[in-house]
Design brief:
406 residues, mainly alpha, Growth Hormone, Chain: A, globular
């Protein structure tokens, strides 16, 4: 029987905590949150390769269908990584899983740097997908292990602050480096992954560990199957992710096709990250007091609208407006999503629940960038209007599960 028998509790603060200032809330977070903050900033600052991969492969003469195959290979590796990382994080501990994934990720990025054919890219990026996907379930689960429920929205916002601040600075640097030499992107990505892996190994606690028998996927899958609200969230997240990933494929090509440089794309993504870095934590102080599923639903809708607006772009300004709308949707939904899933997952299954959510990103990666790029080249309006539909359906899925519950 499922360990989950009722909707997740409202993620709101008791009156005594709700009167705390933002600074007091940040000071109350455990030390582990700030270690993750530093590590994720370093790692995300160096996440150069994947956002520029479509442009890199295009410059090297690979057609859209080959790029779709390469992204699909990464996603297949990522799906395997989620299954492996989810179980390992529950079995051998969060810290060990993160260290293995991040140091392995550094090695796999160097391997992809040396690729010189479609086959070698497919093989090397498969290992990139495995190693880069493994640390997410462990990181998210460790955060839930050490942070009390009433502070989790704030904690997830802080961690996303690091991710997006690092991403913003890294994209600005990455756009500059891509104009000089793409090789710098691969080396920088590898170095920052290795640094975070060492930081995790020597400074983080193991977190909750589960007996070998109980850490298997079978019991967790049965629990998830008996949790219709979680299944709705998974499908909704997959649709939102599919729209989200167009910023790294179709929109990147759109910017270049409009006559702007690769650095212009880097600056756009820098703006996304900086806006999140400065606005998401204050915004989370509002969203943590609202009904979680409605917040996630509205955020998913805005993400779809943000991608759709690119269909009207005849210059950079329209794309900036589209990014602003998309970013607002991302900021209001993502921190609440992390706490929402944590409220559903039994303590001994956190790694596998987090892995299931992570698999939606990898399934999205296997389809969305390649299909989006092909649609952009052949039927762009289908892509832009389809992204709007994805946002609407994702929103409806989150709202529909609670229709009878008010």
């Amino acid at each position: 029987m499922s360990a989950y028998k009722k909707p997740p509790p409202e993620i709101t603060e008791p009156p005594d905590l709700s009167r705390e200032s933002l600074l007091e809330q940040l000071r109350a977070l455990p030390r582990v949150v700030w270690i993750l903050f530093v590590g994720l900033f370093i790692h995300r600052f160096g996440t150069f390769v994947i956002p520029f991969l479509t442009l890199y492969l295009t410059d090297n003469g690979y057609p859209a269908k080959d790029i779709a195959i390469i992204f699909a290979s990464m996603a297949v590796g990522g799906i395997g990584a989620m299954a492996l990382g989810g179980r390992l994080s529950d079995l051998i501990g969060r810290k060990n899983t993160m260290a293995i994934a991040l140091i392995g990720g550094a090695c796999s990025m160097i391997l992809m740097w040396q690729a010189d054919s479609l086959v070698s890219y497919v093989v090397s990026i498969f290992f990139v997908g495995i190693t880069h996907g493994m640390y997410h379930p462990a990181s998210n689960s460790l955060l839930v292990d050490v942070v009390p429920p009433e502070r989790r929205v704030t904690a997830f916002a802080v961690v996303r602050w690091a991710v997006n601040l690092g991403f913003a600075c890294g994209m600005a640097a990455g756009g500059f480096l891509a104009e000089k030499n793409y090789g710098y992107l691969f080396v920088g990505d590898a170095i920052t992954s290795a640094l975070f892996g060492l930081l995790a190994l020597f400074t983080l606690p193991h977190g909750v560990r589960t007996a070998k028998k109980l850490s298997r996927w079978g019991p967790a899958l049965r629990d998830m199957a008996n949790n219709p609200l979680f299944l709705r969230f998974l499908l909704s997240n997959l649709l939102t992710v599919s729209a989200f990933l167009q910023w790294g494929s179709a929109v990147a090509r759109l910017i270049v096709d409009l006559g702007y440089s690769k650095q212009a794309y880097g600056w756009l993504m820098f703006g996304n990250g900086i806006l999140i870095a400065f606005m998401e934590i204050p915004l989370s102080q509002i969203t943590r007091k609202l009904t979680p599923h409605r917040v996630i639903a509205f955020g998913s809708l805005l993400c779809g609208v943000g991608v759709w607006i690119n269909g009207f772009a005849d210059g950079y300004l329209v794309i900036v407006v589209a990014m602003l709308i998309f970013t607002v949707g991302e900021m209001i939904s993502m921190p609440v999503s992390g706490a929402y899933v944590a409220a559903m997952a039994p303590e001994t299954m956190r790694g596998r629940y987090s892995a299931a959510v992570g698999s939606t990103w990898n399934i999205g990666h296997s389809v969305a960038p390649g299909v989006g790029l092909i649609l952009y080249l052949n039927a762009p309006q289908v892509l832009w209007w389809g992204s709007l539909v994805l946002g609407i359906v994702a929103c409806a899925l989150m709202l529909g599960g609670y229709r009878k519950k008010g």
